[in-house]
């Protein structure tokens, strides 16, 4: 390849037959090389770039130029996927961190995370269901021994119930235990009711 075969420029625009700019390639002084594909109305539909912090990204937009999908990898190796609705609110978020942990979030029309499924770096899963303010009110986990556990919280974040295999615990608004139900390994059940100060007021058998 000779010098005559190479085009060197900081900006390149490719137009269609009607003179409309459809592809723009830039390599500006700030170190932000970009590649953009535009629709016939001039709105950017696809954008690829690297920002000065070293993050590489791809974004896809609808016909009006509203960003609907984004894929990025930052300089620390964190990968992120975002999906947005027609109002540019992010409704789905998928993140994979450098340590191998991953998280999937589903958001409402206001961008508030309502459901989150996560797996930590050790491979342990967790599911969170949240209210319209983003506060978790149901948490499901699975420990390293394969034992599931679920906690239910009120809107203030206080634990009100917790249960797992053969076990149910109920709590008052101050998170004080008030009732227990067990099913032991031999199949025998037990119920215990507690006072506010933790004394047993009734149990069976």
Write the layout of secondary structure elements.
Layout: E1 11-15, E2 21-26, E3 34-38, E4 44-50, E5 56-61, E6 67-73, E7 79-84, E8 90-96, E9 102-107, E10 113-119, E11 125-130, E12 136-142, E13 148-153, E14 159-164, E15 167-171, E16 177-183, E17 189-194, E18 200-204
Antiparallel strand pairs: 1-2, 2-3, 3-4, 4-5, 5-6, 6-7, 7-8, 8-9, 9-10, 10-11, 11-12, 12-13, 13-14, 14-15, 15-16, 16-17, 17-18
Whole-number total of structural domains = 3
Low-confidence stretches: none
Oligomer designation: single chain
The CATH class label of the largest domain is Alpha Beta
Strand content: over 45%
User: Which bin fits the share of residues in helices?
Assistant: under 10%
CATH topology of the largest domain: Outer Surface Protein A, domain 3
Radius of gyration equals 27 Å
Distance between the termini: 90 Å
The run of helices and strands is EEEEEEEEEEEEEEEEEE
Question: How many extended strands?
Answer: 18
Average pLDDT score: 94
CATH architecture of the largest domain: Alpha-Beta Complex
Total of DSSP H or I helical runs spanning 4+ residues: 0
Overall SS class: mainly beta
